Automatic annotation (TrEMBL):
Protein name: LD-carboxypeptidase
Active-site residue numbers: S109 (nucleophile), E202 (charge relay system), H272 (charge relay system)
Any Gene Ontology biological process: proteolysis
GO molecular function, one term: serine-type peptidase activity
Family note: Belongs to the peptidase S66 family.
Keywords for the protein's UniProt record, in alphabetical order: Carboxypeptidase, Hydrolase, Protease, Serine protease
Domain LD-carboxypeptidase N-terminal per the UniProt entry, residue ranges: 14-129
Pfam family name, one: Peptidase_S66C
Residue stretches making up the LD-carboxypeptidase C-terminal domain: 171-284
């Protein structure tokens, strides 16, 4: 059974933590935005912590997140940024109190591991959306979608479609996130059941060959055959290649899923872009 955390209301307390990479700059503007929404913001120890590339060592990041998972007064936990690190601590976390008092977990990119885990293991919804580190560059539509997702308001997605789209109506529970992390969860406790779901994917800095490899891994694992639909977000900041692969990320993805009959939508505003719209993992769409 899918569990929906309670939507926020003015006066609620939210926590900001960094379960992966360290913050390279302050997030004061994001704090001001949350406060303008009527929320009380508390900061985890990891927000200012540094340990090589991480926001503190694995022990600190685990303890920081664990404390807020266990605290019933905190109604949402927002990841300050992604980067790398969630997969190093996910199995050390105890979700028993979190399951009794579900709260919104928010983030994207590396945070995909955490979002997938709570849905795969406990059927608890979460929000794939902008994080404080990205707020300075986020579009008004991106921030508005996050507020709407947190407060239970209707979200409308308007965007420019692609000639590659295979049109059709999608209806089903939404799952997905960063393609690299989705591939890394296969065979683990964080692996999501994709059957009869709408899958969304995005990534950054991956060569078309790597995207091809990961998509074919999902296909061979049986993750793509029984979808209700596929939503493709941004695949940007592609590194230079000495020998061109010969296909764009979109062309790579289309080649792999074109044999199926479900709708495929490209150019959806989700991912490592300014217009990164919030979506709710585990929610039935459309709603």
């Amino acid at each position: 059974m899918i569990k929906q955390p309670a939507y926020l209301k003015k006066g609620d307390k939210i926590a900001i933590v960094c379960p992966a990479s360290k913050l390279p700059r302050g997030i004061d503007s994001a704090l001001q935005i949350f406060e303008s929404w009527g929320l009380e913001v508390v900061m985890g120890k990891t927000v200012n912590a540094k340990y090589h590339q991480f926001a503190g060592d694995d022990t600190l990041r685990t303890e920081d997140l664990q404390g807020f998972l266990d605290d019933p007064s905190v109604k949402a936990i927002i990841a300050g940024r992604g980067g790398y690190g969630c997969i190093r601590i996910i199995d050390a976390l105890d979700f028993s109190l979190f399951v009794e008092h579900p709260k919104w977990l928010v983030g994207f990119s590396d945070i995909t591991v955490l979002l997938c885990h709570v849905y795969a293991q406990f059927g608890i919804q979460s929000i794939h959306g902008p994080m404080p580190y990205t707020f300075d560059d986020a579009t008004p539509e991106s921030l508005a979608s996050l507020k709407a997702a947190l407060f239970g308001e209707k979200i409308t997605y308007n965007y420019q479609s692609s000639p590659l789209n295979r049109d059709g109506n999608m209806q089903g529970i939404l799952v997905g996130g960063n393609l690299t992390l989705l591939a890394m969860t296969i065979g683990s406790a964080s692996e999501v059941d994709y059957d009869d779901k709408i899958l969304f994917i995005e990534d950054i800095g991956e060569r078309p060959a790597a995207i091809d490899r990961m998509m074919r891994m999902l296909k061979r694992a049986g993750k793509l055959a029984k979808l209700k639909g596929l939503i493709v977000g941004a695949f940007n900041e592609l590194p230079d290649e000495k020998i061109p692969f010969g296909q764009t990320p979109e062309e790579v993805i289309w080649e792999i899923v074109k044999e199926y009959d479900y709708p495929v939508w490209f150019n959806f505003p989700v991912g490592h872009i300014d217009d990164n719209r919030a979506v709710i993992i585990g929610k039935e769409y459309p709603y």
